[in-house]
Amino acid sequence: MKKIPDEIIECLKENQNFLILLHQKPDGDAIGSAIAMGKGLKQLNKSVDYYIEFPIEDKLLFFNEIKCFNQQLQENYDVILFMDCSTGEFAFSPEKMPKTKVKLVIDHHKSNAHYGDLNCIEITGATAEIVFRILRALDVTIDEEMADAIFTAISTDTGSFQFSNVTTDTHIIASELYKVKPSYAHLSKRLHSQKNMDQMKMTGAAIHSLEILDSMPIAFMVLDYDTITKFGGSINISDDVANVGQNTIGVDITALLKEVRPGEYRVSLRAKFPYDIHEIALKYGGGGHERAAGFNFTGDIELLKEDLMEVYKEQSEQYETV
Amino acid sequence: MKKIPDEIIECLKENQNFLILLHQKPDGDAIGSAIAMGKGLKQLNKSVDYYIEFPIEDKLLFFNEIKCFNQQLQENYDVILFMDCSTGEFAFSPEKMPKTKVKLVIDHHKSNAHYGDLNCIEITGATAEIVFRILRALDVTIDEEMADAIFTAISTDTGSFQFSNVTTDTHIIASELYKVKPSYAHLSKRLHSQKNMDQMKMTGAAIHSLEILDSMPIAFMVLDYDTITKFGGSINISDDVANVGQNTIGVDITALLKEVRPGEYRVSLRAKFPYDIHEIALKYGGGGHERAAGFNFTGDIELLKEDLMEVYKEQSEQYETV
Predict the structure, then answer these.
(1) How far, in Å, are A81, A132, A139, B248 from residue A104 at the CA level?
(2) What pLDDT is recorded for position A237?
(3) Which end of chain B has fewer beta carbons closer than 10 Å to its terminal beta carbon, N or C?
């Protein structure tokens, strides 16, 4: 495993009072990194506060350490730790930001703006991989809750060791976690398989509406207003449901329409390489990236379908002639 | 990583002609173990034949080495290798079994009957973990196809590193595979996420029919004859679909009814610890284990529901009073 720069380790060793901040809508990597880091620093007799946005997803609420989140903050800290957070603006922060001697950024996002006084930025599967290596360098003993936190972070940010961000180090760290606890089977099930009844029924409704446009590799799904009001509300439902289309063999482009008010749709588009659905989202006044974009839509759904088919035809011809 | 016994390594080094056999209906671990082992032996200039049952699941058909399966067999081999196969009877074998000097069994099943002249049996996540360690001991260079084969085997038999059979060694081996190839993201998607349209629609139909019995943690699903004939036929559909129930938060017992002929049902039952649905399957003339059982059923579905609720009530009271 790669070595953590000495100045980062020195900063953590030499200081006493820490505040941990995460990005807005914290995910498994953010929460897991915060807990492992926070408990590690406490083991070294440091004082640690957390300031973290709620709600936290149900599946992450099992950590005992969460009861230490968002207690009375101090006016001054030695170090404010920005974790898993690509810019300072994206951090969830107190309205009146406490003073600090050092802003330390620990993150794995390529796009990180290096906005700290000290920056520990590496392109890893999860920020928690960096945290694990920091804890090792600090000679911290990783207890079961910290192991669960690091596992949760890695497992969620790598899609259970499936995404292209997994490296040799990811698995070496996982192998070390199995020396702390012999099984992460229950935790994995909690993180990846289980859905509540509403999420399950929403997925079913999406599959039921799944339509392939004119033999093209385009999946088109509509969740109508009735379905949304009956089963909607859960935080991460749209990603899950858009995946229904993208996980169907032969599909390269997915459009998911959610009827948020009668006749008004929120459209999520997904594309696989080399297709680019960014332009069509811009045309309808939305935004996003090449492979994931969205926009609000009122109008004739049949025309939207035709637009999508047109985009596919243009782009597929372009790639055929290369 | 644990050492492979010398006698196993000697047997592979000293002999020249090998036949590889697998269990019936070979899965990812069987196919992956066979390919990695077969290609490893060929690298050492051994002669290797494979005798393997078809069909092989679509998702596994991408290996080039499959074109070497089931060619003309010899009458005599030095070694017949039984891989991932808990008993000799469970092996898919030629009608007229070739003669051999040595039967060598390589397997990870607890229930293995040690039916070989030499047995290399260890309780690992996948048989391919043992194969990896054998190949290392033989100083074989693992090429990309062999790495894909071992990854496929481990990834499928551990549910993408989620099951309780994963150990420190599983992740150490995975970390080594990332030194051969930098990403297994496409392969993981192929193995775990993608469903064909029929499988997707069948899952949707199962979710649509999903019913919770009288506020108890029992999921009841019926795939009617129309749905079965429209979308049925794929090999592994029942496990996938029964998981719809078991993956719903709050569900401990799932009954999936497939109407295989009008009015005739194949019932699959699943239970989570500590529930036992074996007895009810026996009562209806079926069989299985505590947590997974099945039977054929014609009759009043409402009575079956009542029986299931009765089983739950009895068992839950029993556990409450302990």
Answers:
(1) 5, 16, 20, 41
(2) 56
(3) C
Do residues B257 and B221 touch, judged by C-beta distance below 8 A? yes
User: How close is the nearest chain A Cα to the Cα of B98, in Å?
Assistant: 41
Q: At residue B154, does pLDDT exceed 50?
A: yes
Mean per-residue pLDDT, B294-318: 93
On whether residue A288 sits in a domain, the answer given is: yes
Domain-embedded: residue B249: yes
- Measure the CA–CA gap between B165 and B155, rounded to whole angstroms: 11
User: Residue A152: CB partners within 8 Å, gap ≥ 6?
Assistant: A28, A31, A32, A60, A187, A191
How close B211 comes to chain A (CA, Å)? 10
In terms of domains, do B177 and B236 share one? Answer: no
Nearest CA in chain B to A252: B194
Q: How far apart are the first and last CA of chain B?
A: 42
If pLDDT is split at 50, 70 and 90, which confidence band does B235 have?
very low
Residues in chain B: 322
Asked if A172 and B169 come within 8 Å (Cβ–Cβ), the reply is no
Q: Verify cis geometry, omega within 30 degrees of 0, for the bond prior to B94.
A: no
**Residue B188 domain boundaries:** 6-193
Residues A114, A105 contacting (CB under 8 angstroms): yes
Distance CA B213, CA B221 (A): 10
pLDDT value for A110: 87
The total of structural domains in chain B comes to 2
| B236 or B66: which leads in pLDDT | B66
Q: Where does a domain end: A192, A218, A243? A: A192
Residue A136 to residue B60: CA distance in whole angstroms: 39
Among B162, B197, B200, select the one facing A188 at the smallest CB separation: B162
Say yes or no to pLDDT of B71 above 80: yes
Looking at residue A42, its pLDDT comes to 98
For B109-152, how does the pLDDT look when each residue is reduced to its tens digit (9 = 90+)?
988 999 999 999 999 999 999 999 999 999 999 999 999 999 99
Q: Which residues of A touch B166 (CB under 8 A)?
A: 178, 183-185
> Which residues of chain A carry a pLDDT beneath 70?
233-239, 321-322
C-alpha Rg value of chain B to the nearest Å: 22
Q: Residue B238 domain-assigned?
A: yes
Mark yes or no for CB contact A174/B161 under 8 Å: yes
